[in-house]
Fold this sequence. Notes:
By secondary structure, the chain is mostly helical. The protein is built from 21 helices and no strands.
Amino acid sequence: MRRTNKAIFIVICITAVLVLLVGLTWVNYRFSSSIKGGDDFLSYWLGTRLFLTEGQSAYSEQTTSQVQIMAYGHQARENEESLIFTSPLYSLIVYAPFALIPDLILARSLWMTLVEMAMLGIVFFSLKISNCRSESSGFLLYSLFSFLWYYSTRALISGDVIIITSFFVVMGIWAVKKGEWEFAGVVFALSTIKPQYAIILIIILLIWSLSIRKYKFAIWFFSSLTFLIFGTILLQSDWIIQYLRASVQNLATLNVYNPATAFSALLPGVGTKIGWSMSGVILALIIIEWIRVRKPDEKKLVWLIYLTLVGAVFIGLPVETKSFIMLLPLLPMIFNVIDERWRKVGVVLNGAFYVMLLAGIWFIYFSTKGNVNQTAIMFFPAISFLFILMYWIRNWVMNSVKPWYDIAQEELKRFR
């Protein structure tokens, strides 16, 4: 009887999930039909489709031209994104199922459903990593924030694969924390479908894991990456050269920034020097922190990883601001530590920080709309604030300092 009830419950759950996914896809279809967008998805959908169905290189000028005409009705102009295919060819494993769908609106709708599920996955694993209760009201609040944050909304509407990349990174961090080195190596290899966003973290994790003799991570990472690279070389032998050429070309036409380029846009005279100086200082800080704690416990390890994740944005690799969605996992750890330290006061502080990061960033966006330097302005507020918060909680995490109320209770017991 119990087995029958369990089977019925499983069937009901599966049916409910399927109904939810169908309903969500229908909503996404209506959205895609009425709202223009999804240009990021379009460039990779059409590039992959032309490669699979006609054997045309996804990196070729002909493919780029077809994407631009489909998106704009003409070749991209000076103020329009070039929409060049700039992912490694093994990103086909993500795009291929959608590229086989001839209807762009239907393909985009299904893709939006996938990235929305990936967003929920980011929320779930981020809470797990920080030991937060995923069944609490905090799950709903964090989920709403994650979907409504400026950088998340941009990535969702454009259909950027950075959401999938972030999901792989978060799963990789969870696996590293749990000591699942084989799984971590595989998912971090998959995260290289957008390599510039997580490459600093991957390099540091490789060096650190080798230093503590956890060789499985490096073995599985490089084995998986080798399989992905050579598997696609069989499909197109020169894709790596074409990919590098397209990436360099894309940098000249896309709104991508690092501290040097962002500062130079705002302060043309000295901005570049300030930016590279900042990159050097933050890189040194990250290296020092990893050296100081060679064998951290779980909480310290997660803090080091998250510091590296936010610090990597400052180090110098040019990125789009949409990639800041990868910083969402920092919030549960920061807010959890503050909550542990301050309790009721911590709830107020966390609420204020949520408002600042959500409403504050949107306010900056709308107040700078039309400004030629808007992207450069949007580059600094969120990442600077999160970096400061990470260092604010550093002492409590790295030195395991007891909360003030625990110390007070211990002192009261002594006088009783």
